[in-house]
Amino acid sequence: MNGVSHDLLVPPPTQLLKERIQVPQKRLLMGPGPSNCSPEVCAAGSLPIIGHMHAEIFRIMDDIKVGLQYVFQTENPWTLVISGPGHLAMEAVLVNLLEQGDTMLVGVNGLWGDRVADLAFRIGAKAVRMETEPGNAFSLQEIEAALVSSRPKVLFLVHSESSTGVMQNLDGVGDLCRKYGCLLAVDTVASLGGVPFSVDKLKIDAIYTGSQKVIGAPPGIAPISFGPRAVEVIKGRKTPVKSFLLDMKLLSVYWACSPGDVRFYHHTPPINLFYGLREALTAVVEEGLPAIWKRHEENANRLRDGITGMGLELFVKNPADRLPTVTTIRVPEGLDWKAVTKHAMEKFDIEIAGGLGLTAGRVFRIGLMGYNAYPEKVDRVLAALKDSIKMAKY
Ligand SMILES: *Cc1c(COP(=O)(O)O)cnc(C)c1O
């Protein structure tokens, strides 16, 4: 006997027996993510579980791979899904591309660049911060000057700074990175699928996104892709990647990314999330990227017109820098922003977000992503915002 009897130290928690799981059925998620999924995607997620080495899951993974190559607009063979949220894909890019003492140049104009710089520091790399005010993007001249002075191994830019609502223009950045001999890594968690984008045309070497934002799948898995220059750097590392789970040399074999890869057990991935993503990608392919991009642009304009029509001010001054998928609105002087988001949730069951990091207390954030980027939802969130501001003022 090992001293353990049938007497329990911790009694059964009765709260689990009182009622079954309670989830709001109709909450409209108009923050910067997660976004609502279609009923088809939700249904796919509840299909029976199969094993991670069964032939059927390999087919689903292959379908996801080609679906993601389409959404990323890339021919990269190393295109797959990280078993974790956007943050884990961010970690995957950094731990695979950087070694102890390497320098990474990071554009910091909001929370996400700041987080990436912090992560680089945690893994023993040197992060050089290129900064600008929240609400601004970086110009090609600013980027070139920072590349010249820091000569990094990797330049990291956030394409969709969802904390400020800024979209970073990436035209010409890939060429600059080649000129100065560095890799280009990009976070597109809040934008990919919702704006015209091409990984290969933009010459991006490492990229990731989220499943739960524009793609319209459940949260917890993160699409990622590495181009040939990044793969070469990873294969030429002097030290092993410090994470087994995120080691792309191993993970790409489980995903059979290269000819001759013999799949092996690496870890048990979230099978049901794969089903949801597979279904969401089918919807993307059915509608087609150009139509989806157009739909996001039109609905973002409808939202912006509604906001300015109410007398509110958009946070991002330069219209060209405005992210269509996350719109930021300046909180009017003296308005209790928390009362606004609370009222929208309680009366309308609609999520409107406040700011994050440097924009906390300064902005409202409204997301228009995937399944939610439709006129009727824009109109619902505008009506809820209007009513909630009126309520909060009194
Ligand atoms: C939401 C978001 C993330 C983080 O994604 P999680 O799935 O919550 O980890 C990273 N970057 C940007 C730009 C985001 O908007």
TrEMBL record:
GO molecular function, one term: alanine-glyoxylate transaminase activity
Keyword Methyltransferase: no
Superkingdom of the source species: Eukaryota
EC number, as in UniProt: 2.6.1.44
Lineage: Eukaryota, Metazoa, Ecdysozoa, Arthropoda, Hexapoda
Biological processes, Gene Ontology terms: glycine biosynthetic process, by transamination of glyoxylate; glyoxylate catabolic process
Record flagged with keyword Transferase: yes
Binding site for substrate: 365
Positions of post-translational N6-(pyridoxal phosphate)lysine modification: 213
Originating species: Folsomia candida
Domain Aminotransferase class V residues, every copy: 51-372
PANTHER family: ALANINE--GLYOXYLATE AMINOTRANSFERASE (PTHR21152:SF40), AMINOTRANSFERASE CLASS V (PTHR21152)
GO CC annotation terms, alphabetical: peroxisome
Family designation: Belongs to the class-V pyridoxal-phosphate-dependent aminotransferase family.
Stated name of the protein: Alanine--glyoxylate aminotransferase
Keyword vocabulary terms for this entry: Aminotransferase, Pyridoxal phosphate, Pyruvate, Transferase
CDD domains membership: AGAT_like
Membrane spanning residue stretches: none
Cofactor: pyridoxal 5'-phosphate
